[in-house]
Amino acid sequence: MIEVERLTKRFGKTVAVRDLSFVVRPGTVTGFLGPNGAGKSTTLRAILGLVRPDAGGARVLGRRYRDLDRPLERVGAVLETFDAHPGRSGRNHLRVLARAAGLPRSRVDEVLDLVELTGAAGRRAKGYSLGMRQRLGLAAVLLGDPEVLVLDEPANGLDPQGIRWLRDLLRSLAAEGRTVLVSSHVLAEVAQTVDHVVIIHRGTLIRQAAIADVQALAAGATLVRSPDAGRLAELLAGVDIDVVGDGRLSVAAPPERVGELAAANGIVLHELRAERATLEEVFLELTGPDGEGEEGT
Amino acid sequence: MSALVAAELLKLRTTRAWIGYLLAGVALTGIAAAGTVGTAEQTSLGSEELSREILSSAGFATVLAFVIGIVAVTMEWRHGTVTRTFLVTPRRERVLLAKELFMLLLGAALALLAIVLVLAIAVPWLVVDGSSFETSGTVAYALRLIVSTMLWGALGIGVGAVVHSQTPALVGSILWVLVGEALVTALLGLVDLEAVGDYLPGRALSAFDGSGGNGGLSMWPAGAVGVAWVVTLALLGSLRIAREDVT
Predict the structure, then answer these.
(1) Structural domains in chain A, sorted by start
(2) Which residues pair with A210 in a beta bridge?
(3) What is the three-class DSSP state of B36?
(4) Phi then psi for B39, rounded to 5 degrees?
(5) 0.80 exceeded by pTM
(6) What would the pLDDT profile of A125-135 be if each residue is shown by its tens digit?
(7) Which residue of B has its CA nearest to A71?
(8) What pLDDT digit, counting tens, does each position of A237-257 carry?
(9) Best of B83, B87, B166, B243 to mutate (most A CBs within 10 Å, chain A)
């Protein structure tokens, strides 16, 4: 359980986070979304006791982070900035953390295996690729087998297999009843992983909702490509249609209806798909200049 | 707390910087010791003064401890490891205390190592020359050097806690010790307050371990002033670290 309550944080004259409140519940993966500069990292750092709020605050498992006993065993966190010494090997980086936290050394090898970094564990971290750095960060998160996980843009730099692997890992951690908060500036990246989303923009809450509700906002268009697009468009009279290119239509009707109509009239289709990418457009709409996050300036 | 101190040792051991520290320390201490024995006046052979002068070659350990102390703190900010350090130990004053304790221990180890190295060079050399190493009075001198090195290391931690930026902290404090204190003392002399200069950290610690030549505070007051500087910088650093944002 993570509770953020009326959090406000300023850096000089810039208000990074303004009166932000939300709750992340156990057993779920919650996406923490917003464009770059929305205040995500500042919020995460406030949750983790790294920045001092100007007003309000955050509690993890009912306490302020700094009041947690043996925090590494309660909360695992990784922030976007790389936090290993470049001259230290990945394994030694984790050994330092384990030593400071009073965790057994055997745990280091376990998490290295878990994040599939054992092969590179002896190399100095300065030679790590972005994906390896993310895996090392995840290893640090998992080191204390925590109940709460806070991950800042963990998918950055991971290849597609890595992203799938991360998704499965986070889903299984949540299924075990843990609390998982994952930030991202790309909704599509986390859409298949998260149960809930908290969307912020300019430091204020735009929306906290189940991912299904956000996806419902994105429901709609079907993309269809046909050599006989003109006739298909005529048959679809009364439906909003955009001609988006050579033989391509964007149709405001479910793909089932378009497909059935084409079959009944013997029209050949070369492509027929629901436009799932419009999730990003919903996000842009919510956070864009005309979105709900706009302040009356 | 012992886990945190052990973690500090592991941090030092697991990057290559310690190899450089060790090589520099051994080389400079060895050269100083050999130079002192090799250029000793025939008349001073076997004297207590020569033994002390030889032992003072181990004084480079104080500089090394000071530098390692500064780097032990500033590297956390330089490489961003401070984020992870404070996630593991959110009570930040405990991190600082662990670093102070670690440097006290490491300072003692460095001074001991330097003394052993100096003796390993000087004693056989003097014996071959038909002389000997006069030990009376040198044990107390060696102990002072060990305590002084511990305090220098702890002082370095305090400097790093107050000034997180590595290069300014290193360059500034070394300039301060080499030039700054003498300059301030000279300026104080213009208004007949030269004695105040004896209370500056570098001069106090030199007076304590006997490397400062004649004048200055006597041993115990000098040691007390040195400890006061260590504690003051640690408290200032602790105040700064407790309040600041880690971004």
Answers:
(1) 2-217 (3.40.50.300), 221-274 (3.30.70.100)
(2) A196
(3) helix
(4) -100, 10
(5) yes
(6) 999 999 999 99
(7) B88
(8) 878 787 877 888 888 888 888
(9) B87
